[in-house]
Prior knowledge:
Four copies of one chain form a homotetramer. By secondary structure, chain A is an alpha/beta fold. The first copy, chain A, has eight helices and 14 strands. Chain A has two domains: 2-83, Alpha-Beta Plaits (2-Layer Sandwich); 88-282, Formyl transferase, N-terminal domain (Rossmann fold). In chain A, strands 5, 6, 7, 8, 9, 10, 11 and 12 form an eight-stranded mixed beta sheet that branches. The radius of gyration of chain A is 21 Å and the shape is globular. Chain A binds chain D through residues 98-99, 102-103, 106, 109-110, 112, 133, 241, 243, 251, 254-255, 259, 262, 284, and chain D through 98-99, 102-103, 106, 109-110, 112, 133, 241, 243, 251, 254-255, 259, 262, 284.
Amino acid sequence: MKKIILLIHCRDRSGIIASVTNFIADKKGNIVYIDQHVDREQDIFFMRLESEFSNSTFSIELLKEEFNASLAKRFEMKWRIYSSEEKINMAVFVSKYDHCLYDILGRYKSGELKVNIPFIISNHNHLKPIADSFNIPFYHIPVSKETKTSAEDQQLKLLEEHNIDFVVLARYMQIVSGKLISKYPNKIINIHHSFLPAFVGAKPYHSAYKRGVKIIGATSHYITEELDAGPIIDQDVAHVSHAYSIEGLIAKGRDLEKIVLSNAIKLHIHRKVMVYNNKTVIFS
Amino acid sequence: MKKIILLIHCRDRSGIIASVTNFIADKKGNIVYIDQHVDREQDIFFMRLESEFSNSTFSIELLKEEFNASLAKRFEMKWRIYSSEEKINMAVFVSKYDHCLYDILGRYKSGELKVNIPFIISNHNHLKPIADSFNIPFYHIPVSKETKTSAEDQQLKLLEEHNIDFVVLARYMQIVSGKLISKYPNKIINIHHSFLPAFVGAKPYHSAYKRGVKIIGATSHYITEELDAGPIIDQDVAHVSHAYSIEGLIAKGRDLEKIVLSNAIKLHIHRKVMVYNNKTVIFS
Amino acid sequence: MKKIILLIHCRDRSGIIASVTNFIADKKGNIVYIDQHVDREQDIFFMRLESEFSNSTFSIELLKEEFNASLAKRFEMKWRIYSSEEKINMAVFVSKYDHCLYDILGRYKSGELKVNIPFIISNHNHLKPIADSFNIPFYHIPVSKETKTSAEDQQLKLLEEHNIDFVVLARYMQIVSGKLISKYPNKIINIHHSFLPAFVGAKPYHSAYKRGVKIIGATSHYITEELDAGPIIDQDVAHVSHAYSIEGLIAKGRDLEKIVLSNAIKLHIHRKVMVYNNKTVIFS
Amino acid sequence: MKKIILLIHCRDRSGIIASVTNFIADKKGNIVYIDQHVDREQDIFFMRLESEFSNSTFSIELLKEEFNASLAKRFEMKWRIYSSEEKINMAVFVSKYDHCLYDILGRYKSGELKVNIPFIISNHNHLKPIADSFNIPFYHIPVSKETKTSAEDQQLKLLEEHNIDFVVLARYMQIVSGKLISKYPNKIINIHHSFLPAFVGAKPYHSAYKRGVKIIGATSHYITEELDAGPIIDQDVAHVSHAYSIEGLIAKGRDLEKIVLSNAIKLHIHRKVMVYNNKTVIFS
């Protein structure tokens, strides 16, 4: 039995749902999940559908071709069909902070993250022992103003050689260039340590302390060229008080960061995120 | 244009989604919302679907007949089709606490609750002035051990005379009898002042204080014959500390109770709740 | 028995706590609550203390004099001593939204808010019936560009005539002028419908929708001349999804607004808020 | 400079706070933190105080003696004085689940948990590689019905040899005997995977699934002889829906468990927990 995931978005029109479910039924698929959303402001239709095919002759390539030639054309859809069996390749970029890395690798090891992690890249050497203890190759690629371009070329080469599907910036403290972003559009997940759009930029906990907020947060998002302004995937917050020092805020925030980043990774892996208009639709 | 809501549950089988969407397409309906759930432990399929019909000859009665004769029979479905235009009738039962009543009536007046409230019933006279100020008929039906049966007969008579669709117990401090429950199965919503199943029964805040919990909660649920054991619709919680007296817990809890009860009312009105196996499926 | 609340802030120094507790013991007071905070960045000490005095000759005026002449001078303190018995006078300003007003008046009537509400002021007439049903005088003072100054003079006159201690802007949709703010510094509480500092200004729910946040919030704060930038008293948030329309965000937000505003009012009434450096210390 | 933490509880009486602050001032201590709580139901007074002593002749032993002879006697106090410099020894017990262990060791390594971990004990061998990668001795002490007593003797011997101050059961799936509990009263912290007192006992996620709750939780508590009934230190919860399978609840719950357990460990280390009457007072 093969299982596929279909993602669609297009202008909203009458009859889309019935047409799609018919198409799947025609191909002898059994729909096991369907969810849809309509953005009524923009008049855009979104759908996520999972289907099982038990006929021995089933071919995902053929399905894609036929879908493209029929419905995709008719409704002018943007669409993707994924096999839900294949494990995808995820690269992790880190700097010196270890809490998100420990969290990701712990979940990876226990099988919670169904993904391959071919390597970890860092601009520092500090976290190599963690990579070693989890038996994951670690590439130290230092970044300075002068070496930024060549460093990025090395990163890109590694990403391409290992067929990386998406990248996780697990508190990677360097700004990623437009070149890399354009090669991995909506495929580079960052964790920002505030409830965006509050406290964009560096040192959000210092800003939060100064402003005297009673809540701090963390935001996972796809990066875009505009800093901290990409589509938000997940957010969470925690209550704090005047009694928290900046260090206290940072410690509390670490727990948010790791949970919110891991949530985003899981949503991405399960193809539950659709991006449009710099926002996300998150299917359940 | 007519808009309907279709709710289905039945044993899970291959082809249900396609069959239902086909049926709607055949009747010239445009599906504007579809969501489904499968309970994999019990192998039960659930669906909620909204559809618009713009043909002038559309009849909801005919649709029901045809659905019943075809799909409902074939898949052995339990199903409901509602017109989403019609306002339904909601009765409110109260005793002496006013916070849930104020909250409900405030939302009612502002149009947030799309419902009719033909009357309020209470076993006390205390809240009559509130009913008066909102111009809602108020029936004082005292309840004692001796009068319990006749009181209930009066309640039932009022419910029937006003074609009440569902009942809200807004901190009504009397146990409702099996007779009333059996006439309104999964149609009587109660608010319990704890995060059930913790602290079943009377005085949950006192029990919470005694146990020294760091979180209190509230639970809205349909009542069943077993006390505080009916299907849960919504729950919410708040953090508390040792510094809270019992009165402090009660005050904090009031805010939870009113929000959680109003959420349940809205979910019920919009036909987003399905009950099976003493649990609920809550559609988004 | 008399009960007082003492609030202090001053530069942090060795010996303050012992000196203050000694002072109270000397005056035959029994300390029933003490809490303190030190801002280690700014080196500022804060204290809140409650004490009971059962001697028949106790005079709060005398206590203030002696405190001022001794400790206040020695440690260069800013301080306040309040009688915790006296009910303080709170004015409410509204426009057209009723949810915060209902919430405040419901709590007021039930005795949860230990305060007097001599009147409600509004720039519209819409909410007069609510004021009437709670038997609270309602002053309709329209505000336009031309009448803004004279309107404010009327407001000030009412505030002064009724010895108003603090003002609550319960979704009052006008900008309050510097003149009024300077007469009631840290005594005008506003509710802003976002988790500040995100979405400052008008229409925060529209901005939240556009940015695609997964969390919305509300913030109660003292107003200052800079819009939405005053000291934050309380904040709360709720999770939302792409499925929320702007109207859905607004409806969900109303529940946050009313709870967060009422929390701020209660903290203010119980003298649990200290302001410095455009931030608050909130005692438990 | 020496820093101490003083914890007190006794029957509430007039004059305690002033007496204690006087005592500290007499000894040339500078109070840097003071907080207190009175349980008005039981009439019990609690205090936590931190003080710095810069005189070169300061002796914590002398301070204890003098405190005991004076105030402790006069007010019949139960009290503790701790040096806040000394690192305390924490033992970790695990079985097969690794998420809490990873979380604890990650925080330990990064310096967030200011504690020594002389060893890890487990009734299984599964998690030895994790202990190895963090360079912490790992003792495999299998437990069966027959070996339970001798296993416990081995555990006790290790605890005593290493001067263990407190024990953390990081998802240790064995019931700890009364003998061990009585040697470490209010010093063995367990994490239970539900919001106690709901779902006491084994398999709480299965029970939560069956009951159809909309919220799951985790509870850290000191163990007592009665199963899952000891004093609660910290609790947290997360919203779930009908769409969660049991496995989904378990995965979501893991995030709660690790955060709630680590919070309890930090509170215990910093001497912020006082136990009485099977409840806790948690100082900020």
